[in-house]
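My main concern about presentation is that the manuscript never shows what a single data entry looks like. An entry of this sort, consisting of the sequence and the corresponding backbone structure tokens, reads as follows:
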Amino acid sequence: MAVIKVKRPDLATGEKLYLGAIVKGFFITMKHAFDSLRGKTRGASDLASSGLGATMQFPEQRWDDQLPEYYRGAPALVTDEQGRERCVSCQLCEFICPPKAIAIEPGEIPSDDPWAKVEKRPKEFDIDMTRCIYCGMCEEVCPEQAIFLRKDYLIAGGSRAEMMHDKKKLYEIGGKRVGLVNKWNELK
């Protein structure tokens, strides 16, 4: 098989200086600038922008109604309808977490508890929100649907200690979730 060498075409003087591309880019930029001054910026009406361009006025305006269905926010633990913990301390979410943001210490349920047929529940369940990358793997791997990613993007804290969510805080922000929980199933 023969090798065919292709010779590059010689550039003209204007092409060597990139003058045409620079001028074209300048005119596109100026067109967008004038459109924003006239209030015709693309997307500004969707954001109900009150200023020039498509700037959202954050504390008053939120993205909540424009978040896609597949948006993944902060993880939280949920309880069932009766307020019982769904988590069985299987530690799958801890093992699958890529940045190792989840730490679980399993604990046993006392034998005098009416739901003692379940072996474990988390004694400690911590998520370091400074390390969490919101990948959703913890939610996917959970066999009891005990951890969910909320549509919350406002996670702030004044210190690293405030960004460490413990079991109490995770249940507080997670709330209740309706549906079958395998560990409380009478057939199990």
